[in-house]
Amino acid sequence: MPNNILKLSSGFFGKHILEEIKMENGMKAKDFLAVNNKLKKTNEDTTPFLVSKDEELIVVGDANQIEVKSNDYTIKFRMSKDEFETKPEGAEEIGHFYVFSLVYEGISITPRSDLKIVDAIFKILPFFNELKEDGDIEDLSREELLSLFANAKEEIHLAMYNLVATFLGIDDHLGAHMLPFSVIGALSQLIDNHPEIFNEADVFFG
Questions:
Q1: Which SS3 state, helix, strand or coil, does residue 51 take?
Q2: What are the extents of the domains in the chain?
Q3: What pLDDT shows up at residue 104?
Q4: How far apart are CA 171 and CA 18, in angstroms?
Q5: SS3 for 67?
Q6: For each successive 10 residues of the chain (206 residues), what is the average pLDDT?
Q7: How far apart are the C-alpha atoms of 70 and 54, rounded to whole Å?
Q8: 165-174 burial string, b = 16+ CB within 10 Å, else e?
Q9: Which helix (H) or strand (E) holds 98?
């Protein structure tokens, strides 16, 4: 189990995410495999990104594709009614909870957020790839992925929650109440919209 994931399971963020996972049953194995397939396809993308080498910035990919991409993301949350004085607009009442959606509009990756996002991606890459002693990265087989998912399901969820919250700028308190299927959807959308950030993380990971 990757050591850099363990720290996520402590504190408010990790505790409440695990509660959400138990209530919703969380991500299924098929969802995990689907994310893996999307991550593999990012290697075929030529969207450029910058890397630093010997104090110089180098463009990796097709420099002609440089553009600022911004997209909208919708996240669904479930929170106790006790946390609100009035019912949130558009919220659905389910037992002792309000379930509501928030739209994060025009989200893009800036130079300032880039490193934070790459750092968050580092925490999910060990669940999909094996870093060899010589620095090469090797894809895990389907059997290895399923075994890892069975034994580290909670840690995988925590890493994905952390990545989505970091990318969208959601604080720990609110982020801990994101519904699992919503996190998976946002992660999938992030991979589709910004494959270059995952390729950038691969460069540093390897």
A1: strand
A2: 3-69+108-205
A3: 96
A4: 17
A5: coil
A6: 38 58 72 94 80 63 70 95 91 93 94 91 90 75 93 90 96 90 95 93 73
A7: 31
A8: bbbbebeeee
A9: strand 97-107
